[in-house]
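Office hours follow-up: a student asked to see two folded examples consecutively, so here they are.
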Amino acid sequence: MPSPATSPEAPSTGAALSAGSDAPPGRLGRIDTAVHLGFAVLLVASAVRYAMRHSLQDNLLVLGLAGAVCAVYAVIAVLARQRRPWAVWMLVLMAIWAVLVIAAPSFAWCSFAIFFLCRTAFTGAVGYAAAGGTAAATAVGLFRLSDGTDLAMLLGPLAVGVMLTLIYDRIEHDAEQQRRLHAEVSQVQGELAASERRAGTIAERERVSREIHDTVTQGLASSLLLLEAADRSWPGQESRRDVTQATELLRRNLSETRSLVHELASPGLDDSPLAEALHQAASRYVPDVRLLVTGEPGNVTAEVRHTLLRVVQSAAANIQQHANATTATVTLGFLPGSVTLDIYDDGTGFDPAAAAPPSDAGGYGLRAMRQRVEQLGGVFSVESSPGEETIVAAQVPARLRAEQAAQADREEP
């Protein structure tokens, strides 16, 4: 890491010793303010103490050194606040300080502030050497004060310097770990948010593709079959009927397309009973379809209603296009806590396991029906085989609207 002497971006006392610019302005709890204030108080107190105990001749030299230390310290504080290099000034401060503390050990208390400045200004081996030099100068000054007789005065500052160094290193290590963990958490959160956005986009695309398949694609495919049949039988009476039916399908398909653009909902079906809506949706493709209802009918939620309508539409369109059936039956069953739907036809059947995968030519119907049902926590199945009848079955958990409203009332405080 570069020192402040080589990089203006290096930590300063205003940033490295405290919350820095993140702290509220003028907050006395900031560490840098406490260090500067503590140094000023200790320096003034030490100068007063020394002046009261020594002669005027001694006072002038020591107080001059103290004034120089104070001036250099002020320069460092200003440069640090402005995030400008100040390591060279720190070397000057250490040199003057070493002379001052050896000449007047009364100023040894200011060593704590000098220690923190050394660790802020320098890193690595240089930082350890600077802190060690501060501790050594203090030890020499105190040992000299005892006339070389008190070994504790020599070893005490050195021991305190070692302890402060270990504590400072541990704080720096923990702070670095915290910054690293915070960066990792931020990165993971960003990746998770991006993943959720991608998943949401994919889910929305699949939902829209199902809506388009069950409305626009199925309607156009059925209309195309009717127009092709009319072309083959033209100008007979059957061709007029096929053209009329294709026109009606296209008109309804246009209406559903407009509704899809605005609301993605089936027009004209939301206000009618579910059984009637299902029969109407199926009869668009299979005019002679029969409807059976079992159980006690109820008004299901909008999500269940929409899913059942789309399943019936898609299954009926498949019957018209592929089954060659003579009979088709839709059975709607109301069970406690669920709704069942069976679409039966006596057509040619097929092998569900060998169904073509989705492609430009089609193949989305069964997959779309299964996804709709399973998204509501339901079960979807297809029973068929070549040459046999086909049964498309779905069972969806469904709270009736009245039960849902009662549950909401119970949950209200």
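And the second, which I mentioned at the end of office hours:
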Amino acid sequence: MRRILIVLLLAILLLPAPHKNKPEPIGAGPLLVMARPLPLNAADPAQRDLGRLHYLGGWQLSSAHHGFGGISSLLAEPDGQILALSDSGTLMGFHIGPGKPRRHSFIAPLPIRPQDRDRPWWAWDSEAMTHDPTTQRYWVGFELQQMICRYSPGFARVEACRIWPQIEAWPETGSIESLARLPDGRFLVVAEMGMTVDGSHDTLLFADDPAESATAAPIHLRYVPPRGYRPTDAVALDDRHVLVLNRRLTLQDLFTATLAIIELPQKPRAGDRLKARTLARLAPPLLADNFEGLAVSRQGRRWIIWIVSDDNHEFFQRTLLLKFALDQQE
């Protein structure tokens, strides 16, 4: 009975609801994050390999700060500097793992344009984030507002925002869940619940910055996830290969996740299918929760994969941060 009640509670959290369980707006300030190391598999602490992933470490994160949690996207640097974004427009910066932090930990709200200050606090449903390492600019996708905004280096200010009719056609609470910038300057946006006629997920490929008014209309592609899963985040490895994190909720396993890879066609055309190829699956008895955020960094020639869960600010969920090395063998 307890298991069924938890599933019902989790299902309610995933239903379309404007307020969810978000904390009210916070001011900028310091942040103390506690990290408890966890094995990948509590029943077999020696397990390190999972599909094409090799487990490098994992932590349950917590903080006394009421604004901490609800993480939906993140960026990671090789030395363990993490920049996380919650689904209520809150940035969290902290360090994880060995070594000395290069920056102080902090928590702060996203900057807002003057014309947006009258919008209700719960409407800043920031579900996706990406970054250009050359210009140090950031892009954030807002689900309820179905808007993409670009921010100056350091998130100092909002530079531009745009609402696309192609995204407005998606369900408000199932729209911009994944936003990836390719190294060549293109952007890929994957709908969580915006479906095409064949049941795949509508995916938009932008030739340039989706926050700019001069950017041309995107190409519609179709993302085909692993069976029963929905995409929750995406990040590019190169100009053609994109990792996609996918989530599923079932009575048997509660939350499970798959990490998959897709390959963009050399010359994409409208309607092209992007079929996911599963690299690894996170399900009991392994660490499993509401995994929503995905990031990559480099360690020498290895890709390092970071996966984070959204605790929805609920006592029965956890903020888990997992770190893997990707086996690049084909």
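Two things to take away from it. Residues 20-326 form a domain with the Neuraminidase fold (CATH 2.120.10). The CA atoms of residues 33 and 90 lie 15 Å apart.
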